[in-house]
Amino acid sequence: MNFLDQIRDRRAVLKKPVPVIAQEIAMQLPNLYRLLTGRHDTKASTLEALAATLNAEWVLVPKHLAPEVARLLSGKTLAPDAIPSAIERMLDANK
User: Fold this and answer.
1) 16-60 pLDDT, tens per residue?
2) Which of 57, 64, 73, 90 sits at a 20 to 30 Å CA gap from 12?
3) Whole-angstrom Cα distance, residue 39 to residue 78?
4) C-alpha of 36 from chain center
5) How far apart are CA 11 and CA 14, in angstroms?
6) pTM above 0.70, yes or no
7) How many whole angstroms separate alpha carbon 19 and alpha carbon 91?
8) Degrees (nearest 5) of the Cα angle 13, 16, 19?
9) Read out DSSP for 16-64?
10) Which burial class, exposed, middle or buried, applies to 39 when counting CB atoms under 10 A from its CB (0-12, 13-18, 19+)?
């Protein structure tokens, strides 16, 4: 799931209208719509403000940990033996 998908999902969970977000981050509404549809590049500070107004954090996740993070964000649980831990994956990647 890419960053814009995460923003859209988070906005939907919070039921926060785009015009309210635009006002909270001091961004013109057309620019925010373009950003949310992937047709507008923006500064990192804008993305940080957008995440903050959605009560979230903007972070980078190493690719090898992305599946585990996605699983945690989805709320799905797996038995501990079903997937290797982050430490096990990191050790495997360093071999």
Assistant:
1) 999 999 999 999 999 999 988 888 888 888 888 999 999 988 887
2) 64
3) 36
4) 12
5) 5
6) no
7) 46
8) 150
9) --HHHHHHHTT--HHHHHHHHTT-----HHHHHHHHHHTT-------GG
10) exposed
CA-wise closest residue to 5 among 47, 33, 49, 38: 38
Write the CA distances from 3 to 37, 66, 79, integer angstroms: 11, 12, 27
Q: How far is CA 32 from CA 20, 38, 39, 43, 95, in A?
A: 11, 10, 10, 12, 44
Domain-by-domain residue ranges, the chain?
3-53, 63-93
Residue located via tokens 């797996």 = 78
